[in-house]
Amino acid sequence: MTKMLRWRWTSISAGALLAALTNIASTEAADCPRKDALGTSRVLSVDAKATPRVGLKSFPQTLPLADHEVVLTFDDGPNPPTTSKVLAALAQECVRATFFLIGQHASEHPDMVKRIAREGHTIGHHTWSHPFMARIPSDKAIAEIERGIAADEMALHGVATTTPSTPFFRFPYFESTPAQLDLLQSRGIAVFGADLWASDWNEMTPEQELKLVTERLAAAGKGIILFHDPKARTAAIMPAFLRYLRDNGFRVVHVVPAGASQKNADAR
Fold it and tell me: Which residues are CB-neighbours of 177 under 8 A, at least 6 positions away?
């Protein structure tokens, strides 16, 4: 059996230090006080004009990641009981991720939205109520996009604007229409798909989820990974998953909008 298949989420070995970090046209991540932590290897600026759509599950292209580089993304939050556990696991390993928030949830839990941002993570948008966007009238789809962005911005900045401070968007269920994609591109909003996912919307044990996502990652070698922070099983495996990344030489890349790298660095 390979090391990956022997992995257990309830029994985590200390492992070796993270391999030398790769730096390819990127900004260095902030230093981590725990030198044995996984850490965030680099910050990748995403220009919506140059890269309007990424993620091989939905589109022909993805982010320019090197072998063993991953981008961690979480959908459908915030949900305080589980999102807080995910944030704690990320903080323990000095890892930064991207959270695609449902506007309705953001409006219900603004303090959690602020915490996500305060801890250095990127906040993207995921509609107001998570509908199947290709199955509703065009005007309702546009309203879902705009109301979701406005709710996220209100929770984060106290202003209900439909111009996102972070122009990143992910469609619920990865379902969209060409007109919706064109609309977001015209507004300078990058659409994120994913390269692989944990399938944590399916009923399974934490052990099964960890085995599934690590096997998929071992096969893919890199990519944008999709999790759902409201899922208890995902919150449960996150410490072990991050240790798996570290012990197997994976490096975490944090995505930010073009021009935001230095601003974010200064804020830290």
Answer: 133, 134, 141
